[in-house]
Amino acid sequence: MDTCSILKDFFEGDVREILHPDGRFFYCQYKNYRLKINVPNAFPKELPEFFIEDYQNNNYFFTHIDSMGKICFISEDNLIWNHSNGK
Fold this sequence. Notes:
Blueprint: H1 3-11, E1 15-20, E2 23-30, E3 33-40, E4 49-52, E5 70-71
Antiparallel strand pairs: 1-2, 2-3, 3-4, 4-5
């Protein structure tokens, strides 16, 4: 199953994929929000980024979302990679 199919199953709707020199962008609808998921070319060595589109144009505020709509879902400085596992 490819990434776009997985996202379509999860979001139960239309998912649009755009290829970009830095990676792939996926646009999804979740409830009243349009999400943009950036999957970098270096994935899984670099984490995907999740954004709420047009977040800065609205008059609402949610914790763990910066002013540009980037959703903070994990602290990148606390990750531990186990390279000796081999799986």
